[in-house]
Design goal:
Elements lengths: L1 H27 L2 H21 L15 H12 L6 H9 L2 H4 L4 H8 L1 H9 L8 H11 L5 H20 L7 H16 L6 H28 L1
Helix pairs in contact: 1-2, 2-4, 3-4, 3-9, 4-7, 4-9, 6-7, 8-10, 9-10, 9-11, 10-11
């Protein structure tokens, strides 16, 4: 029953993004390029939905995981005004190697070397301890390609918004505050690549910090 619900939710979200994508790409590309881009976009969307089909986000609503890569792609397109198909497809696929059984060779065969290279840039090494992985994100953020920096920016924007408004179950307020501080440190090395994304990140971060500060004050008042 839950699987059927996930499929319906995924289908509705995917349908909305597809419609927006078709409209906007048509405004920017010729017919031949448009056909190729849409084909690749739909292939990536279907691939990601299949790979994440049993995954849920950690929020109280247990949202379908596919919502996240779709949201990242949407932020890149609508906020960052990034119309590069490699970056958009990379956003849809960015968690497949890290969080599913997808192999690099599978990505290469289906989507090519450029998209594989982008995904690998933003993929953490899960064999390392969590704290070491987080430190490496800070250390290597300034060394990423422009595509990877923009993708990472959009990813952190979406994660911060979720942490503030739809936090993982059992996360304390302090743990959420610590996440915001860490994300801000990662973003420091990404700046200079897309002003619109950077401004939007700052706005989302400020809103999240304000919300968590209010939650802390409320908790103190109730104590």
């Amino acid at each position: 029953m839950q699987t059927d619900l996930v499929k319906r939710e995924n289908c509705n979200v995917s349908r909305i993004l597809c419609i927006d994508f078709l409209i906007m790409v048509n405004c920017h590309k010729g017919d031949n390029v448009l056909h190729n881009d849409i084909s690749l976009f739909l292939k990536a969307l279907n691939f990601s939905a299949e790979k994440h089909r049993n995954h849920r986000r950690k929020d109280e609503r247990a949202s379908p995981y596919i919502n996240h890569p779709i949201e990242v792609a949407n932020v890149l397109w609508t906020i960052g005004e990034i119309y590069d198909i490699t970056t958009i497809v990379g956003a849809l696929l960015h968690d497949t190697i890290e969080d599913t059984n997808t192999t690099p060779e599978e990505i290469r065969l289906n989507f090519g070397d450029d998209i594989l290279a982008l995904i690998l840039e933003v993929t953490d090494d899960k064999s390392l301890p969590k704290q070491e992985r987080k430190l490496k994100q800070i250390e290597k953020s300034s060394l990423l390609s422009d595509r990877a920096r923009q993708l990472k920016l959009a990813d952190k924007i979406c994660n911060i918004s979720d942490i503030a408004n739809f936090p993982p179950r059992n996360w304390s307020c302090q743990r959420r505050v610590d996440y915001l501080a860490w994300a801000d440190a990662v973003i420091a090395g990404l700046r200079g690549v897309n002003v619109k994304l950077e401004i939007y990140f700052d706005e989302v971060l400020a809103d999240a910090q304000k919300k968590l500060a209010q939650e802390k004050d409320s908790a103190v008042g109730e104590a």
